[in-house]
C-alpha cells in the first residue's frame, strides 16, 4: 500500500458496533505500511462534507477523477485520520493523482 491509494474498507461505526463499506485514502508512508495497520482518511460522497473545514473535494468532472475509482464526487475528510487493520480492507479502488495527494497532505498537515 502506498500513499494516495484508495481502498474500500469495512469502516467501523462509532461505538465499535458494526461497520459499513467505505472508501478511504492511505496517508501513511510506504515504509510505515509494512506492518498490520495503515493510516487512512475517510472519503464521503455527502455533499455537505464539501464545505467542511479541512476537507478536500474531488468533483466527478475533474480530469483526475477517473483514476480514483470512486463512483461520484467525493470529499476526503482530512481532519479524521484513523489507523485500521489491513484485514479490514476489502479491495483497491484506484488512486489520487500526485497533485491531488499533495493537496490532501497539505490540508491534513494544516490540521495539526
From TrEMBL:
SUPFAM superfamilies: Cell growth inhibitor/plasmid maintenance toxic component. One of its GO terms (biological process) is rRNA catabolic process. InterPro entries: PemK-like, Plasmid_toxin/cell-grow_inhib. Pfam families: PemK_toxin. One of its GO terms (molecular function) is DNA binding. It comes from the Bacteria. PANTHER family: ENDORIBONUCLEASE MAZF-RELATED (PTHR33988). This is Type II toxin-antitoxin system PemK/MazF family toxin. It comes from Bremerella cremea.
Amino acid at each position: 500500500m502506498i500513499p494516495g491509494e484508495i481502498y474500500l474498507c469495512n469502516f467501523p461505526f462509532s461505538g465499535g458496533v458494526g461497520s459499513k463499506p467505505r472508501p478511504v485514502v492511505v496517508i501513511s508512508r510506504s515504509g510505515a505500511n509494512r506492518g498490520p495497520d495503515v493510516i487512512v482518511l475517510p472519503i464521503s460522497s455527502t455533499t455537505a462534507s464539501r464545505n467542511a473545514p479541512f476537507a478536500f473535494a474531488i468533483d466527478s468532472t475533474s480530469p483526475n477523477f477517473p483514476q480514483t475509482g470512486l463512483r461520484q464526487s467525493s470529499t476526503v475528510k482530512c481532519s479524521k485520520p484513523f489507523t485500521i487493520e489491513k484485514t479490514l480492507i476489502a479491495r483497491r479502488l484506484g488512486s489520487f493523482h500526485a497533485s491531488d495527494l499533495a493537496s490532501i497532505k497539505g490540508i491534513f498537515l494544516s490540521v495539526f
